[in-house]
Amino acid sequence: MIAVFHGRSPRPWWSLAVGLTLLAAWLPLLPILEPLLRFDRLAHMLDARTAALLWRSTWISGLAALLAIVLGWPYALLCTRFQFPGAGLFRLLMPLPILLPPLMVAQAWFGLTGMTGPLATVFTFGVCYAPLPALLAARSLHKQAASSFESALLIAPRLAFWSLLRISFLPAMIGAGFAFLFAAADFAVPDYFATVGDLFHVYAAEIFGHSRNFDFTAGATASLPLVLLGVVILLGNAILLKRQLGYEKNSGRYATAISAGRLTLPILLFMLTIVTVLLLAPLGRVIFETGNQGPLSERTWLEVSQQAFREGIDRGRGDLMRTLGFSGLAGLLCLFLAPLWAHMLLHCKNWLRLPLVVLVSLPLLVPSVALGFGSILMFNRPWLDQFYSSSLLPALLIAGRFLPIAVFLLLDAMSRVPDSREENAALAGCSYLQRLFRYRLGTQHASLWLAAGLVVAFGVRELDFAILLPAANASAAVRYYNALHFSRDNFVAAYGLILILLLFLPVMLHGWWQSLRSSDQ
Amino acid sequence: MRISRATLLLPLLTLACGHSDGMSSGPDLVVYCSLDQDLSENIIAKFEARTGFTVETQFDVERNKTVGLVNRIIAEAKNNPRADVYWNNEIAHTLRLKDAGLTVAYQSPAADGIPAAFRDADHHWTGFAARARVILYRTDREGLVPEKLDDFLNPAYAVGGAMAQPLTGTTLTNATVLSLQRGNDAMLSWFAAAEAAGLSFGAGNADVMRRTTHGDFLWCFTDTDDAAKAIAQGHPVAVRYLEQGDGSLGVLLIPNSICILNSGKNLDAAKQFLDYILSVEVETQLAFSVAQQIPLHVGVAMPAGVQIPGQDYQVMAVDWPAVAAAISARAVAFQEAFVK
């Protein structure tokens, strides 16, 4: 049996990946698929009221995705491929906004500007998810072949700039596709802006309302239009990715950053503006909130803030560690699963690729509350008691739910490596895992870590199925939202900051480690 | 300097795989709790310290408004029930569990001082530590503040006022109670008339309270626990009880409720837990917490300024089983009216 996995054939490993995905993602979906097959209900899926809600969700998410691209793409382009003071710091800060819970960002921007309504929702989602197009574009820009870029530069700088745009546009669009999906499924941010301003609703509220009925039928049927919309977006992503696969392969030197020259000051100002919008302004407001009190309060800002941080550490430390534990485990699972899936998609027959993309993406498209109830029905059995109560179950579900993001990222990264490298390794007798991890992914480790890191970040933020699973219930997200809705504003702000700091720590360490490595070389 | 990535990965692996829930032999009691985690976890910890029992507690979040854990109890009961006790921060969904046959009877001696209106005749559930539905208003602004529910329909009151949409939580319960008194269609018309009069609707009670403290509204219709937090945070606000005086409906009082579930495990520990939670000591602790929950035992000490139901204000009579039977259908009707 073990010999099978030591062999050259990828099939045993791909079968293992499919088996794990079955456990982590597809089995919990089974209980909610059954109601979807009752076609009598599908006929009444949308009426005028729900169609209006769906349209509002679509344009809000579409504009948010557009804003994410507008903010994220130039950010990635400038800090990845131009030399100017602080470029390294800007690169380091790029993923940070994705660690901020969108609801926290919404509260911060409302506190700063008083913005409300659907456009405030668009702005918040655009700001929160701008790192997705930015990170995907940055990876492509970082791996551009020096030969093609330098040739273009020799002919005309404009041509070189065009090559930068061309190589990063499709990955940025893929990132925007994911931003759309997250924005469309989010209920909390529009709900918040509807509360602080004029009331409006989005389609996710309709799903939430119907998910209170336990028979799943209403919730599952209500979620179907959003699932179908998500499938369309993902198919769009898959088509973009297929086009990207046709772009340049790179087996040699990577293009280096060019000096910003006379544009240094404008670029610096632009980058500072973007970082302020994405990060510094909301973080500043959140820091202010840690000590904010009513006018009749007799305590100082500092006293209140200190107490909030003390409570955050005292009360929330255990939950934080548990959350990092199961989210970290989910990240580790994706370190293994995502390369196998990406490689399988890269090599599978064309007709099979799209159905596989849809299958692997399905857990991301269904409401996570449905995934949670599905896992209760599938795994809460007397003989599975240990597994059901363990941290492994939330880790598996998080890995299964956010796997598509990691797979898309790695598929893009792998497509840049020439097939000849892997073919030579096969001729030399290398095992499948060696070919995959050493020769296909050998120069793409940063993408692999980024993929796992995103899974961890989204896992930490996951709330809906955390409520439903024994080992995930005592988590940072549950404590955060519990405090938020009971108006413990100081605690919420302080706890959110502690959470962000803990998540950002590995990113900083990685940046520091990279700089050590480059100084060694 | 060469550091392998596997070395960096080791601490994460250790953290992830080495994590245990601290209950390798299983807990002595599993409690599902919808009351605010900050309020309830200290009380449960005290119970653990006194009895030596290990309690596994699972919490809900306010965003789910009780429904997350209730539906989880129902889902888990299909194959392998886990929870021994359900501590609900309201009452209607506890009755749903009783109606589904998921609760067992237990007459706790600690419940003796609680009025019969808040106890199940069959002893499947007991109410305690309540919240009242009240008006929270700003004391630093001039304007009309309602004294009756139907004042919400008068533009002179409604403009500048707010309440949560009746989709979840205590507002849904409140709206269901009223729709049983007035009829479903009449209640839907009442909401439409209130909106037309200028009343604003928010997502939740805490949210409308927050907006009132920020000065967006003169008053809001909310719960006493939200009002108590606003006052504790130093905002210039005060509480008014609706529907007082001869022939008036009185104030709706929504208690916490607790029941033993038929998991078939840890029944003795569950009974001890109920005795503890229903004690005067716990009601006193909840009364002096930031939420200032209202004790239902007679004669329990109260913080200064907190009014006593039945003595300082009239309380609405409610047929709770009827509310529980109607609440799901009403939720759908309100969803269709409000989510658009």
Binned, the helix content of chain A reads: over 70%
* CATH architecture annotation name of the largest domain in chain B: 3-Layer(aba) Sandwich
Number of E-type strands of chain A = 2
* Biggest beta sheet attributes of chain B: 10 strands, mixed
The tally of helices of chain A reads 27
User: In the CATH hierarchy, what is the superfamily of the largest domain in chain B?
Assistant: Periplasmic binding protein-like II
End-to-end C-alpha gap of chain A? 42 Å
Cα distance, first to last residue of chain B? 61 Å
Q: Uncertain segments of chain B of ≥5 residues (pLDDT<50)?
A: 1-8, 14-23
| Number of distinct beta strands of chain B | 10
Order of helix and strand elements from N to C terminus of chain A: HHHHHEHHHHHHHHHHEHHHHHHHHHHHH
Q: Helix- and strand-based class of chain B?
A: alpha/beta
Strand order of the largest sheet of chain A: 1-2
Arithmetic mean of pLDDT of chain A: 85
Order of helices and strands of chain B: HEHEHEHEEHEHHEHEHEEHHH
Q: Kindly report the name of the CATH homologous superfamily of the largest domain in chain A.
A: MetI-like
- CATH class categorisation of the largest domain in chain A: Mainly Alpha
Globally, the shape of chain A reads: globular
Low-confidence stretches of chain A: none
Task: Summarize it.
The complex is a heterodimer of chains A (521) and B (340). Chain A is mainly alpha-helical and 521 residues long.
Give keywords.
heterodimer, A: 521 residues, MetI-like fold, 2 domains, globular, B: 340 residues, alpha/beta, D-Maltodextrin-Binding Protein, domain 2, 10-stranded mixed sheet, disordered N terminus
Walk me through the structure:
Chain A has 521 residues and is mainly alpha-helical. Chain A folds into two domains: 1-38 and 326-473, Orthogonal Bundle (MetI-like fold); 46-295, MetI-like fold. Chain A contains 27 helices and two strands. Chain A has a two-stranded parallel sheet with strand order 1-2. In chain A, helix 15 (217-245) runs parallel beside helix 21 (392-415). With 340 residues, chain B is α/β, with parallel strands linked by helices. Helix content of chain B is 41%, strand content 16%. Chain B is built from twelve helices and ten strands. In chain B, strands 1, 2, 3, 4, 5, 6, 7, 8, 9 and 10 form a ten-stranded mixed beta sheet that branches. In chain B, helix 2 links the parallel strand 1 (29-33) and strand 2 (55-59). In chain B, 52% of the residues are buried. The interface between A and B is large, with 72 and 68 residues.
